[in-house]
């Protein structure tokens, strides 16, 4: 790692070393407090609540895809060439992984594999992630000068502000995204909403049981009719 920082920009080293999607320590009690924005000027990550402090800075939105941090190719291409990194299309956005993912089984085959970590890849690609590309280039070329691009202005897409940035194309994704469909019954604050969401499954089951037990009551109508009939004895 000696001399590592001399050969790559600080922001890139920080980006690849950062742990995203942890709660922001400044906004511990806020609703959307996952650190999913990276500031290239401050070389740090923060949550959407922190945005006002970085308005004029160059910002990169981090998303999650199959438990790993990804960024949109459109954004990353403004900073560094990533055409040789395998991309994935999800929610109509092309994304690439920031870091290599641990592999469950070692890959030994004749197919195309990541030049850095041996992960199997689709054909035209050379790297599984940005970090694999960076690592190899630092090793083979001693720098990234030819890959880096000048970028003076990198705003967040307007749609992503205070958005949790979670992509949900696959069912494997963490259920961290706030799906508030059908939880309108309880109301209440953030903590309450979270509790409702986590017990939603059992609640609906109980409701189903209740409606099954209470059958439509027909006999009531018959009783009312009986009462209406005058029963006076004619003999006295
Ligand atoms: Zn924050
Ligand atoms: Zn900043
Ligand atoms: Zn790799």
From TrEMBL:
Record key words, sorted: Metal-binding, Zinc, Zinc-finger
Biased composition (Low complexity): 193-202
Name recorded for this polypeptide: Uncharacterized protein LOC105043603
Species assigned in the record: Elaeis guineensis var. tenera
PANTHER family linked: OS09G0116050 PROTEIN, PLATZ TRANSCRIPTION FACTOR FAMILY PROTEIN
GO MF annotation terms: zinc ion binding
Occurrences of domain B box-type (ranges): 24-62
Region (Disordered): 175-236
Keyword Chaperone carried by entry: no
């Amino acid at each position: 790692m000696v001399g590592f920082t001399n050969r790559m920009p600080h922001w890139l080293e920080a980006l690849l070393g950062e742990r995203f999607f942890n709660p922001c320590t400044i906004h511990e009690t806020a609703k959307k407090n996952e650190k999913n924005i990276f500031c290239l000027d401050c070389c740090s990550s923060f949550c959407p609540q922190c945005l006002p402090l970085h308005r004029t800075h160059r910002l990169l939105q981090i998303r999650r895809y199959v438990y790993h941090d990804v960024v949109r190719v459109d954004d990353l291409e403004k900073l560094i060439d990533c055409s040789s990194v395998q991309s994935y299309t999800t929610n109509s956005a092309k994304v690439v992984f920031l870091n290599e993912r641990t592999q469950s089984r070692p890959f030994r085959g004749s197919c195309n594999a990541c030049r850095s970590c041996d992960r199997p890849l689709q054909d035209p690609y050379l790297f599984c992630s940005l970090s694999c590309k960076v690592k190899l280039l630092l090793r083979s070329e001693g720098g990234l000068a030819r890959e880096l691009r000048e970028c003076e202005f990198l705003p967040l897409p307007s749609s992503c502000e205070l958005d949790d940035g979670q992509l949900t194309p696959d069912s494997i994704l963490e259920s961290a995204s706030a799906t508030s469909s059908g939880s309108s019954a309880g109301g209440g604050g953030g903590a309450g909403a979270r509790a409702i969401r986590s017990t939603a499954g059992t609640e609906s089951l109980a409701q189903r049981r209740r409606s099954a037990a209470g059958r439509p009551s027909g006999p009531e109508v018959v009783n009312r009719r009986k009462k209406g009939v005058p029963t006076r004895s004619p003999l006295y």
